């Protein structure tokens, strides 16, 4: 919502949020100038309804919506674990898209994968892409890849943060002030990501460019290989991928 409003292509008056907590409604109105309501039926006039609730709260929300959902409504769900089949069963006449965004969307650098339900149109795909590309990158993918999306871009930011913390703690252990170590490590991560995105260079080519023969980078990369770091990271992705699949079957 913040990204869409910041783009200037949608006016605050065109956005209504259904929120049951009065204090949250007050905060949203004050912060964004949007309309708010505690009643989901007030959204029946909307063209697009974003289902931005926790997965365990979605059944109650869908029960409120099902009575007025029609073929003219597009519902965009970001509820983890809720497949298109489950969403379409709950909203049998409406059009549905499913999106898996990640936390960096709040900083305007998110990664959002989306997929279309059986009744959704190509126009719905572009609407979904438009909404989420205002806060990062949005890419259409088949639903069969969504467990991988959850592991790679949904859980992935935490894994990068884990590595960032490890770099900073290692420098701190060798005598660097904690604040300095954290600042250097963070900017190095940001700069590396920016360079790779701007140049299109592969990680392998990047590592070869940075690592001089018998230099410091080569020594560090050899230590990572000797410790089996690549396998450890692969196991983290595998664990998140498998857990996503389990949650989808629940």
Name of the CATH class of the largest domain: Alpha Beta
Number of strands: 7
- At the fold tier of CATH, the topology name of the largest domain is Rossmann fold
Total DSSP helices: 11
The mean pLDDT is 95
Poorly predicted spans = none
Helix content: 40-55%
Largest sheet: 5 strands, mixed
CATH architectural name of the largest domain: 3-Layer(aba) Sandwich
Q: Strand arrangement, largest sheet?
A: 3-4-5-6-7
Quick one: overall form? elongated
CA distance, first residue to last residue:
29 Å
The portion of residues forming beta strands comes to 5-15%
Q: What is the assembly state of the chains in this entry?
A: single chain
What string, H for helix and E for strand, traces the elements in order? HEHEEHEHEEHEHHHHHH
Radius of gyration over C-alpha positions, nearest whole angstrom = 22 Å
CATH superfamily of the largest domain: NAD(P)-binding Rossmann-like Domain
Structural class: alpha/beta
Number of domains: 2
List the helices and strands and how they pair.
Layout: H1 2-6, E1 16-18, H2 22-32, E2 35-37, E3 48-51, H3 58-66, E4 74-77, H4 84-90, E5 95-100, E6 110-116, H5 122-133, E7 136-140, H6 146-154, H7 156-173, H8 178-199, H9 203-210, H10 216-226, H11 229-249
Parallel strand pairs: 1-2, 3-4, 4-5, 6-7
Antiparallel strand pairs: 5-6
